[in-house]
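Researcher: Quick sanity check before group meeting.
Model: Go ahead. Protein one:
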Amino acid sequence: RESGSSVRGRSRISKVGNRKLRNMVFLAALSACTYNKACKALFDRIVAKGKSKKLALIAVANKLLKQAFAIAKSGLPYDENFVSKLA
């Protein structure tokens, strides 16, 4: 990302990378919106702002990836009620 925002505008979602992996994460986000309360809340919040459902699903996929990396890094099991110490 660039430090200034007036010259280049907003950054776009990139489609660079492994297509199959990206598709699997997208499908996982679709399922998470049904079964994961936090993901469903994020999805509903973004759609309520007037954004598209596809963009909201991509945001959920990003959240899932961040959760997966945090779990792998910390070594702790997944806890649905976990609250970050930074929050």
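Researcher: Fine. The other one?
Model: Protein two, sequence then structure:
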Amino acid sequence: MVIVETQRLIISELSLDDASFFLKLVNTPNWLKFIGDRHIKTIEDAKEYLTNGTLKSYQENGFGFYKLQEKLENKTVGTCGLIKREQLEDVDLGFAFLPEFEGQGFGFESAKAVITLAHERFKLNKLIAITLPTNVKSIKLLEKLEFIYQKRVIPFEDDAELLLFAKQLEINKN
């Protein structure tokens, strides 16, 4: 189901049909380095992860991670979306891209649309984002999106220390 369109992207819900894309994404060098190995090695693993993660989140929260399709060539470039983690107080904005589509502005474009969706459709007043201190590209994107660094956190068991950013979502008063 299409959620929203931007100038270059169709943002839609992920489905089990996206398992092969998801399998490829979660095994890219940057995913493994900055997000971590989710031990997804087969299409069946990917389907199970989608079922128990994003698809479950759509049902429970109304939101989750979304598939990003580039309009001109109809290629899936990555994912961007919202996740409510029990370890964190607020809803988390996340994004990841296939290597061949990094550095082309898809992160900013998709995140802006998802932030608007978070505020207008899901009535959220605040978003957070977490990233490793070594993930310079993610930090720069969050700063460009006007997220403000808050503190260092260790939200997950056996995980590295992460930087926590936050963004207040205001109603435009103009």
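Researcher: One line on it for the slide.
Model: The chain has one domain: 2-168.
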